[in-house]
Amino acid sequence: MKFKGSENYVATQDLMLAVNAAITLKRPLLVKGEPGTGKTMLAEEVAASLGMPLLQWHIKSTTKAQQGLYEYDAVSRLRDSQLSSIEGSEKVKDIHNYILKGVLWQAFTAEEPVALLIDEIDKADIEFPNDLLRELDRMEFYCYETRELVRAKNRPLVFITSNNEKELPDAFLRRCFFHYIKFPDATTMQQIVDVHFPSLKKELLAAAMKTFYEVRNLPGLKKKPSTSELLDWLKLLVAEDIPLEVLQSKDDKVSLPPLLGALLKNEQDVTLFEKLVLMNQRNR
Ligand SMILES: Nc1ncnc2c1ncn2[C@@H]1O[C@H](COP(=O)(O)OP(=O)(O)O)[C@@H](O)[C@H]1O
Ligand SMILES: [Mg+2]
Predict the structure, then answer these.
(1) In 3-state terms, what secondary structure has residue 55?
(2) Which stretches does DSSP call E strand in the chain?
(3) CA angle, corner 172, sides to 124 and 65, nearest 5?
(4) How far is Cα 70 from Cα 156, in angstroms, rounded to an integer?
(5) Which of 63, 199, 218, 224 is the 20 to 30 Å CA partner of 94?
(6) Probe residue for ligand 1, chosen from 180, 191, 197, 228 as the CB with the greatest number of ligand atoms within 8 Å
């Protein structure tokens, strides 16, 4: 079982190495990086290229670790017990009917090996990663309501992503293989764009990339645009049929690019960029 990249996803050498290291170690792969650098898509692509189904668990600030294991729906059981039909009371007797299996339970009991994505783990509270340590380590947990031990038939291939909004506990980190997806350099970015827009005109792409990196490298930006923003912007440039001349300034001065809202997402950043453009024009 080896990941060698895929047609839709540009994986750098070190990223492929990290994926394979996690597979070899049988440890979760913890992927960090700026939003929009392909963390979620990595899990989807690895699963697809290894032919594994992918179970996804998208974490919110209110998500609890227990929800990934199972939840006991006592309210439905009580309601069913009050609606006293005959088949209903049969159902009420068996507690299994009221256990909602979480993604970990599903992953552990799947017939074939599966991949499991725990997406944006840093959204949850600090206890969340710690609460999952044992389950991810031993690949088993106990269901008190049904008195059964749920143990993984096959060890799932686990991906955990983080946007780095919170630090993760050391005990948790110890159990993962870690990879940071660096922001793609120009060559890699070119490849990524090629995957999404194979027939984009060379000149337009070159001009757009130049503008994109100018915007991105502006010192003091609150939110730097990333890969997904560039792709959105290119899509718009193509859809709106923006002519090349609008992007290329003759004298190599910075000008305000069209559809800037695809790249910069808050007014301070836009103002900052406008100032730069103004300064440039004065220096003419
Ligand atoms: N290496 C890559 N190859 C191809 N497309 C990419 C790559 N990285 C990012 N993308 C594009 O950027 C989008 C956002 O990626 P996503 O996985 O949602 O980012 P993240 O989870 O890191 O926020 C994807 O839908 C994909 O279109
Ligand atoms: Mg994501």
Answers:
(1) strand
(2) 29-32, 54-58, 70-72, 99-101, 115-119, 140-143, 148-151, 157-162, 177-180
(3) 40
(4) 17
(5) 63
(6) 228
Instruction: Give tens-digit pLDDT for 125-174.
Output: 999 999 999 999 999 999 999 999 999 999 999 999 999 888 999 999 99
Structure tokens at 6: 């895929």
How many residues in the chain? Answer: 284
- Beta strands (DSSP E) in 136-205 are 140-143, 148-151, 157-162, 177-180
**CB of 142 closer than 8 Å to CB of 10:** no
CA of 234 to the centre of ligand 1 (A): 14
Residue of 3, 32, 41, 231 best suited for mutating to test ligand 1, as the one with most atoms within 8 Å of CB: 41
Spatial separation of the C-alpha atoms in residues 194 and 188, rounded to whole Å? 10
> What are the tens digits of pLDDT across the range 106-121?
999 999 999 999 999 9
3-state secondary structure of 177: strand
Note the pTM of the prediction, 2 decimals.
0.92
Residue type, 283: N
The protein residue whose alpha carbon is closest to atom 4 in ligand 1 is 9
